[in-house]
Amino acid sequence: MANRTYTVAVAGATGAVGETMLRLLEERNFPVRRLKLLASERSTGKSLTFKGEEIKVERLDDGSFQGIDIALFSAGATRSQEFAPAAVKAGAVVIDNSSAFRMQSDVPLVIPEINPDAIAGYQARGIIANPNCTTIVMLMPLKPLHDYGRVRRVIVSSYQAVSGAGAKGIEELRRQTLAWARGEPIEVSAFPQQIAFNLIPHIDTFQPNGYTKEELKLVFETRKILGDESIGVSPTTVRVPVFTAHSVSMNVETERKIGVDRAKELLSKMPGLVVIDEPEAGRYPMPIFAAGKDDCFVGRIREDLTNDHALNLWVVGDQLRKGAALNAIQIAELLVDRYL
Amino acid sequence: MANRTYTVAVAGATGAVGETMLRLLEERNFPVRRLKLLASERSTGKSLTFKGEEIKVERLDDGSFQGIDIALFSAGATRSQEFAPAAVKAGAVVIDNSSAFRMQSDVPLVIPEINPDAIAGYQARGIIANPNCTTIVMLMPLKPLHDYGRVRRVIVSSYQAVSGAGAKGIEELRRQTLAWARGEPIEVSAFPQQIAFNLIPHIDTFQPNGYTKEELKLVFETRKILGDESIGVSPTTVRVPVFTAHSVSMNVETERKIGVDRAKELLSKMPGLVVIDEPEAGRYPMPIFAAGKDDCFVGRIREDLTNDHALNLWVVGDQLRKGAALNAIQIAELLVDRYL
Predict the structure, then answer these.
(1) What pLDDT shows up at residue A232?
(2) Domain range annotation of chain B
(3) N or C, where is chain B less crowded by C-beta within 10 Å?
(4) Which residues bind phosphate (chains A, B) (predicted)?
């Protein structure tokens, strides 16, 4: 396959994740023969640049996928549900960034550093699902701790950037902050409440048990990706006025005691994860530092003062990169490397 | 004591907490006969308004407290250590907002809604300590849950406003945000890192066990105020780009199972605490809503999916009011009501 090249479609190309996918396909020199950019009616006619070439954005429809090898979807769950079947029917493998197929038993849910072999399951449906952005950031450090000590329970509070709501989320924080700076009234549209200088403990819709869908994604996706239905996750997700990197504060309880030194050793060997934990020198992970980077960052690694089989961690990762576009492109790389 | 009035000094009068103390002494019609405003050299000569009168700010020194009944200190731990003894010697009762005396066994640490009777201990040293701002916000809901179910373990992640660093913290977020809006470089001075559009998992100094002093305050102050050394607290404190209200995400494990319905009932009876928990109607506590209010707010009350003896809560309270100035004034009210 060394010199094979692929026809790639990006559905949702004009969104924040879609545009990051384009940048990553360039940066990582993915073997693209032809790139097709797809979006809803509203964005067709726009052009985007790929390797110095202008490519026109075309309207996403059932006929979009003729001759496509790999279809990267990031246009929301509704569009994935509507158009992924047509892409598969046309012969493409779909890598879907939405929540539409993640929990379906015949669709693999993959973080390449964690469960690369799960990708084999793509042949059942022709679809591979990309996990939720916060799930990915949270699992990068959980995986090596789970392999060593078997994770029993995770209590996680998130600090999620506005990019998680796409380009309109980024624009909303920008607009609200500028309105504040000019002394103008602040208008709310992308989020349920003002996000500038505020916190919103509400991401995705509420379920009857009081948790949001976003929170339950952390529970169920964690179990599926780590392949262990006995892991308990107790989540609280919160939107914060930060542009593009998600952070989580996690308490991780394991069956086997790990301890700080061993944890640092395990975490520092995890591909795609960097330990930054020299707090007295002012070095710990932060969103403004993680934004634009491919790696996730973990620090503030401490033994839980109340349970010697638990650790506290602080993890930060770019939501658009490892939390979304990068993970999808890594899945595509794995796919062409092993199967196409 | 009905008609008695008191001479009151505010040390640190020009700070964010000091100015809020003045507003609260007015709002609550505290029986002030004479008000003395004290600050460091830098602020002397300034004037502040109290009940329509201009009062000059005087230099804080050992001679400042002659004839003072109640000295409210909010000028930092160093100044409290330096000048509180002189205030006590001059006959004043000191109510100290700093961390200087909080953990001393002969100094009461008081939240009036929680442990009002502890105030009696003030006679030993003439000092009453006001708890850390995040401790107060966290304990307002913990108290009724502890009384009912005995709290065993709290895993808490904070989302702390810049006002926790005083007027200079507020000014730093304002200045950095305006610089961003104008496309100018962002300068860092009050916090160890940029706070605009960022999160800083670093409040107060780091200790050898990897926790910050701020985090350990939550551990030790909780035990002292609730009078139970067996309560475990596992804390992570984070500064967020919010102006004046602190938020905490807490997982609370109790000996006796409480459940959501009972928890709501217990929490709604707690004075100074308001339950806002109609998430499907978009009603949950948020910093922009809590800022400027005296009450603390709790919502997102959920049973922990991993432990039926634990609950997840989201709590928000104005850091300058209940987290600092209001609690201090409430202590003063209790003091004059019971002892002076």
Answers:
(1) 98
(2) 6-131+324-338, 134-319
(3) N
(4) 102
Residues A156-191 pLDDT 10s: 999 999 999 999 999 999 999 999 999 999 999 999
Q: Is B164 annotated as belonging to a binding site?
A: yes
Its ipTM equals: 0.97
For residue A243, the chain B residues in CB contact (below 8 A) are: 197
Which among A240, A307, A314 is the nearest to B240, CB-wise?
Answer: A240
B305 touches chain A (CB under 8 A): yes
Residues 6+ apart with CB under 8 A from A324: A17, A20, A74, A97, A130, A133, A136
Q: Which residue has the tokens 């928000």?
A: B316
**B241 interaction partners in chain A (CB closer than 8 Å):** 197, 240-242
Share of chain A above pLDDT 70, in %: 99
Nearest CA in chain A to B156: A157
* pLDDT reading at A2 higher than 90: no
pLDDT in tens, A221-266: 999 999 999 999 999 999 999 999 999 999 999 999 999 999 999 9
The structure tokens listed for B133 are 């701002």
Q: How does DSSP classify residue B278?
A: B
B16 annotated ligand-binding residue? yes
Question: How do beta strands A296-303 and A310-318 pair?
Answer: antiparallel
Q: Which runs of consecutive H residues, i.e. helices, occur in chain A? A: 16-27, 77-89, 133-149, 167-181, 213-226, 260-268, 287-290, 326-338
DSSP state of A93: E
Q: Where are the alpha helices (DSSP H) in chain B?
A: 16-27, 77-89, 122-125, 133-149, 167-181, 213-226, 260-268, 287-290, 326-338
3-state secondary structure B18-77: HHHHHHHHHHCCCCEEEEEEEECHHHCCCEEEECCEEEEEEECCHHHHCCCCEEEECCCH
Predicted confidence at residue A32, as pLDDT, reads 98
- Asked if the C-beta of A307 comes within 8 angstroms of chain B's C-beta atoms, the answer is yes
Q: What are the tokens at B303? A: 């049973």
Nearest CB among A194, A299, A306 relative to B232 is that of A306
pLDDT tens, residue by residue, B21-78? 999 999 999 999 999 999 999 999 899 999 999 999 999 999 999 999 999 999 999 9
Catalytic residue flag (residue A202):
no
3-state helix, strand, coil in chain B (%, to 5): 35, 25, 35
Instruction: Give tens-digit pLDDT for B231-249.
Output: 999 999 999 999 999 999 9
B40 and chain A: CB distance < 8 Å anywhere?
no
- Yes or no: say if B203 and B237 are a contact pair by the CB < 8 Å rule: yes
pLDDT of residue A3: 79
Name the residue among A286, A328, A333 with its Cα closest to residue A133.
A328
Q: Is A133 a catalytic residue?
A: yes
Best residue in A300, A307, A315 for a mutation probing chain B (most B CBs within 10 Å)? A300
* The domains spanning A6-131+324-338 and A134-319 adopt the same CATH topology: no
**pLDDT tens for each residue of B1-28:** 457 999 999 999 999 999 999 999 999 9
Fold for domain B134-319?
Answer: Dihydrodipicolinate Reductase; domain 2 (3.30.360)
The mean pLDDT of chain B is 97
CATH code, B6-131+324-338 = 3.40.50.720
User: Is B241 close to A236, i.e. CB distance below 8 A?
Assistant: no
With CA atoms as reference, report the closest residue to B251 among B165, B151, B333, B321: B151
Global pTM value: 0.97
